[in-house]
Amino acid sequence: MTTPAARHLRLIAPSGYCNNQVAARRGIDYFRHLGVKVSGEEVINRRFQRFAGSDGQRLADWQYLQDCTQLPDIVLAVRGGYGATRLLPALNFPALAARLRHQPVALCGHSDFTAVQMALLSQSGIISFSGPMLVGNFGAEHLSEFTLSHFWHALTSPALQIEWQTSARQLDLSGTLWGGNLAMLASLVGTPWLPTIENGILVIEDVNEHPFRTERMLLQLADSGILARQVAIIVGNFSGSKLTEYDNGYDFDSVWALISERTGLPIITGLPFGHDRDTVTLPLGACAHLQVKETHCSLTLSGHPTLR
């Protein structure tokens, strides 16, 4: 595993209340065992209704990044859930951009955190990392070496390469990698928080979404003109749904086939990315080169912030 280069990690909780305090403590212990300073622990105990604090308290997490004397190396989301979209109209994106451009900071999370990541990319061009979070990943009882290795490799590699097996046809193309949780992307359609990416390579993942809901969200992206601006779609993990006899053979492969037929886009499956135990870490907004030869896929990424 790549040796961590981080000295200071700041916890942030823009979404749901941390209902697994034990896992959160395990995650903090993981980083401290590596010699990383962890701050912002108070956010894991914070609670207002189902959220990790009031809107004002959760906005203050971002205000800290604008005002602190020394920026952390990593800003890590505690967990997902719901709540990030409530904050978007009040976030000071110009101030965040002005501050974060002076020092590379790895903003990392997924799921509901996708809303903030897309808004940062849309409003300020800030690249962030879609990857593991404190509770579900670093706080797991049995850590995934795959996830840890890919996390540290992504945060320390100016030229990042990820490889996996796929059934997609041969291709060779370049574009801007963006996306994340599909439900969050669909929820941002028609808002100023969804970036307009030309020649994009859209990467998607989700959990507990049936194939028909997944198809409906992708059709929303297609009918909104968003997929027409892409050059490819990379499919990560879509887990947690159960098919029944009523589906009669309708599954995720059926979804990918329909979307590819409707849009003409190549769809590359098989990337271990998302809510599952094993996940890669991807810089959203990075320059990407995607190659498929036979059953081998290679994604090369550059232009993202790396730890000093």
If you had to describe this structure to a student in words, what would you say it looks like?
The strands form 2 sheets. Strands 6-13-12-7-8-9-10 form a 7-stranded mixed β-sheet. It has a 6-stranded mixed β-sheet with strand order 2-1-3-4-5-11, with helices on both faces. It has 308 residues and is α/β, with parallel strands linked by helices. Helix content is 30%, strand content 24%. The chain starts with 7 loop residues before the first strand and ends in a 6-residue tail after the last strand. Helix 2 runs parallel beside helix 3, helix 3 crosses helix 4 and helix 8 runs parallel beside helix 9. The mean pLDDT is 96. The chain folds into 2 domains: 149 residues, Murein tetrapeptidase LD-carboxypeptidase, N-terminal domain (Rossmann fold, 3-Layer(aba) Sandwich); 144 residues, Glucose Oxidase, domain 1, CATH 3.50.30.60.
CATH fold-level assignment of the largest domain: Rossmann fold
**Total strand segments:** 13
- Helical content stands at 25-40%
Give the neighbour order of strands across the main sheet.
6-13-12-7-8-9-10
As a percent range, the share of strand residues is 15-25%
N-to-C terminal Cα separation, in Å? 17 Å
Structural class: alpha/beta
Regarding CATH, which class of the largest domain?
Alpha Beta
Biggest beta-sheet profile = 7 strands, mixed
GO molecular function, one term: carboxypeptidase activity
Pfam family, one: Peptidase_S66
Protein name: Muramoyltetrapeptide carboxypeptidase
Family: Belongs to the peptidase S66 family.
Question: What's this entry about, in short?
Answer:
By secondary structure, the protein is an alpha/beta fold.
